[in-house]
Amino acid sequence: MNSNSSKLLSQAVDAFASLPGIGKKTALRLVLHLLNQENYYTERMSEALVNMRNNIKRCSKCNNISDEEVCAICTNAARSNGVLCIVESIRDVIAIEDTQQFNGRYHVLGGLISPLEGVGPDQLNLQSLKERIEKDDIREIIMALNPTIDGDTTIFYLSRLLRDLPVKISLISRGVSFGGELEYTDELTLGRSILARVPYATPE
Amino acid sequence: MNSNSSKLLSQAVDAFASLPGIGKKTALRLVLHLLNQENYYTERMSEALVNMRNNIKRCSKCNNISDEEVCAICTNAARSNGVLCIVESIRDVIAIEDTQQFNGRYHVLGGLISPLEGVGPDQLNLQSLKERIEKDDIREIIMALNPTIDGDTTIFYLSRLLRDLPVKISLISRGVSFGGELEYTDELTLGRSILARVPYATPE
Which of A52, A132, A156, B197 could bond to B8 as cystine, CB 3.0-4.6 Å? Predict the structure, then answer.
C-alpha cells in the first residue's frame, strides 16, 4: 500500500491484517469486498463483532462462553447425565459439540498446568470443580485434554486432586487417526497404538 | 456450530464467514482471537471498517477511491507529466502503484465493455475522459486493461473514441511472466510472445 493511497482504506486494511492468518493482500481483498457492498453490510458486520465482544460472558458453572449467566449446556436438563468432560478451552467444547457424540456437561479449565511456562493449578478454573462434582452427582469424568506433556501433567494433577471422590476417571482414546495412513503416522503415536491395542470383537 | 452454542458467537462467526474466502472454521478462529484480546481491539477494528465504508469517496477527476473530493494522485503536481493510465478498477491502481514504475495519473473506468454481460460504454466512467485529456494536456494514454476479450473490446472502443485527439495510445506489454517457466506458460501467451518478439540489444 503506497503512501498515495487512501488513509481510510489503509486503516481498514491494517485492521483486517492484524487478525491471525490474514496478510496484507487478503486484507485488501476483504476491504475491497466491503467497498462493493452496501454500507449497512459493513455496519451489521461490525455490530455483530462488537456486540459479541462486549456482551459475551463466561458461564458461572463451567466457564464455557455464554450469552447468559449460566450457559445453554449447563441449563439443559437433558445433559444432566452424571458425566463431566474436562477440557482446556472453549475451542475444545466447540470441537467436541461438533462431533455430536457427547451428551454430558463440560468443565473448561482455561489452560493446562505447564511448569515450563509457569502456569500452575492456581491459574486454572479448579476452585468450583470438587464442589460441582458432588453437587451435580457426577459419576464419570472424561479428561479430554491435549495429548501433550502439559496435558498429561494436568491429568495427573487432577487425578490426585479427585482421588477421594467416588468418580470414575477416563481419558479420550489415543491412537491412529480414522482414515489416516499408518505410513504417515508419527512413530510415537503408532508405537503407542500398538502398546494400547484393544481386543477385536468379530461382528456377528 | 451447534445450536447449544452462544448466539452472540454464532452471529460474529457468520459475519466473518460472509467475507469471500473465509470459511466457518477460519471465521471461528478469528472470533476466538477477538475474545482473547481486550474489548477495545474489536471496537477499534470495527470502527476502522465502518469509518472507511461510510466516508470513502470516489475522486471526482479519476474515479479512484479517495478520502477527499479529489484524490491524492490527482492533486499531486509532480504527477502531472502528460501520461494517463486507463484501468478497470481501483484494484489495478493499487497494483500499479505497488510497482512504483508509473508516475502519471489514472483514469478508472469502473468496468470493461462486455457484450456478453450486457455492459456497454454508457456504464463506464467515460463522460469526463475526452475533456480531461484536453484540459490536462495529456500526450500519452497507457491502456492497462486485462488481456481478455472484454479488455481488448474496451481498448478498441477507446481507440476509436479518442482517434481525433493528438494523443499516443500504448498498451502494457504482454508475454511470458518474469521468473516464469516456458514449460508452464499457457499456449496462447507463449505463442503470442513469439509473434510479438522484440529485438535484443546486446549490453555493452
Answer: A52
Question: What is the ipTM for the molecules in this complex?
Answer: 0.78
- Minimum-distance CB partner of B9 among A29, A30, A65: A65
Give the closest-approach CA distance of B60 to chain A in angstroms.
Answer: 14
Q: What angle do CA B72, B73, B79 make, to 5 degrees?
A: 135
State whether B9 and A47 contact (CB < 8 Å).
Answer: no
* B15's grid cell: 459475519
Domains and CATH numbers, chain B: 7-54 (1.10.8.420), 58-171 (3.40.1360.10)
Q: How far apart are CA B164 and CA B169, in angstroms?
A: 12
State pLDDT tens for residues B74-109.
999 999 889 999 999 998 998 888 888 899 999 999
Are A34 and B44 in contact (CB < 8 Å)? no
CA distance readout (Å), A118 to A111, A114, A127: 12, 6, 19
The pLDDT tens digits for B103-112 are: 999 999 999 9
Burial of A145 (0-12, 13-18, 19+ CB in 10 A): buried
